[in-house]
UniProtKB/TrEMBL annotation:
UniProt name for this protein: Deoxyribodipyrimidine photo-lyase
Origin organism lineage: Bacteria, Bacillati, Actinomycetota, Actinomycetes, Pseudonocardiales
Species: Kutzneria buriramensis
Keyword check for Iron: no
PANTHER family assigned: CRYPTOCHROME (PTHR11455), CRYPTOCHROME CIRCADIAN CLOCK 5 ISOFORM X1 (PTHR11455:SF9)
Domain Photolyase/cryptochrome alpha/beta, residue spans: 3-124
Amino acid sequence: MTPPAIMWFRRDLRLSDHPALLAAADSGEVLPLFVLDDRLLGPAGEPRKHFLYDCLRALDHDLGGRLHIAHGDPVKVVPEIARKLGAGSVHVSADTGPYGRERDEQVRTALGDIDFVRTGSPYAVTPGRVRKQDGEPYRVFTPFRRAWLDHGWRKPAKSGVDSARWTTLKGGRKIPAGKSELPAGERAALQVWADFRDGALADYDAGRDRPDRNGTSYLSAYLRWGCVHPRTLLADLGPGNETFRSELAWREFYADVLWHQPRTARENYDRKFDKFEHDSGRTAQRRFEAWCEGRTGYPVVDAGMRQLLAENWMHNRVRMIVASFLVKDLHVPWWWGARHFMRNLIDGDLASNQHNWQWVAGCGTDAAPYFRIFNPITQGEKFDPNGDYVRKYVPELRGVQGKAVHKLDKLPGEYPAPIVDHADERRVSLERYDAIRT
Ligand SMILES: Cc1cc2nc3c(=O)[nH]c(=O)nc-3n(C[C@H](O)[C@H](O)[C@H](O)COP(=O)(O)OP(=O)(O)OC[C@H]3O[C@@H](n4cnc5c(N)ncnc54)[C@H](O)[C@@H]3O)c2cc1C
């Protein structure tokens, strides 16, 4: 008789389009497993954890209550469960982040003669696969995207709850209580996708840059936990959806960058920036706190930071504006902001977050030229032309009509005065950049 297999879920909390699940099902009976790992949960931030717990509950429901939850170090826990079950193999979707790769190697070794099988990954093209002709990784997005498109990907895998004969094991933990505002799990993800695909996608090119509209997919948290695979989305796209396909390519690009250079999760991609002068001390700390709390006196920045605190999500355009403001107007190191984002974002993702921050800070891959510094006032006027986004998140400004919410000299007294002068700080940033340029 074929020994049972374990399907160890991690960033693939779904049953459809799941190649690893099909591979596990090939082996015989399958135990669905998730391990609550303190090394990942510790730094995760409450919003992301609550969303995870709710996604686990949804997966458990779809599995008829059979999801086995364990708690502890996977290097110990997974082999223990495998031995208890008498499993012949442990199946996973590959984890390509720095911690996951190391952990998986240790689990593989600890499993001894039990097979550890990686099938697929959370990406349409597994990081590390798309390379230049000389075998080197891409350092610039546009040629990466072209090569990624040329490489292509498989059709969505036909899998579901009936693909496997599921088994159970005694002694599982309870899924911790979650209280996510966002509907969690695979069904919710597919519904969110269907609504966007049949609605805002048609106007995505124009709508995606407008934080005052619902012009984007809101799929990032679902993609983060693999409630839907990007291949499922890509399969639904047509020739007119180039911009949306490109956004998914950014996600794949940053995962690829992190796979090749795990150090960039913590360090500047461009080492020239290691010498860049940042502010530190009490003033920097005070300004950083004002930024975190949405009290900078720049309306679109404050609206974004308050959206983050209220909804644990922020519009992409505004993420760029607030990140630029922190780094180039307040001269605070990018990693302070990246850490605040990771703690508060429901979609916090190491590859996307750290590399987008580095892109804005000028020290990342094909970074925006350092001297192109976002003006927080004109950005507000351009992308929130009627001021609706600002008024939604900054109650002190609700009485200000139309685009006047972006005029600093027209704002009411209860709203904070600007903590810095943009023109002055822009000059300081450019001088500091000049100092490291050569
Ligand atoms: C400073 C900063 C930090 C960010 N941190 C994160 C993060 O932690 N997690 C995260 O998923 N995204 C991050 N992003 C990228 C982007 O802001 C979000 O993916 C997007 O706002 C999510 O909303 P959406 O799903 O409606 O996006 P849509 O516009 O509908 O895009 C669809 C999907 O494409 C991907 N995508 C879009 N833009 C980017 C991008 N610039 N980089 C990588 N992937 C992208 C996402 O998976 C997104 O869900 C960050 C951007 C900036 C500027």
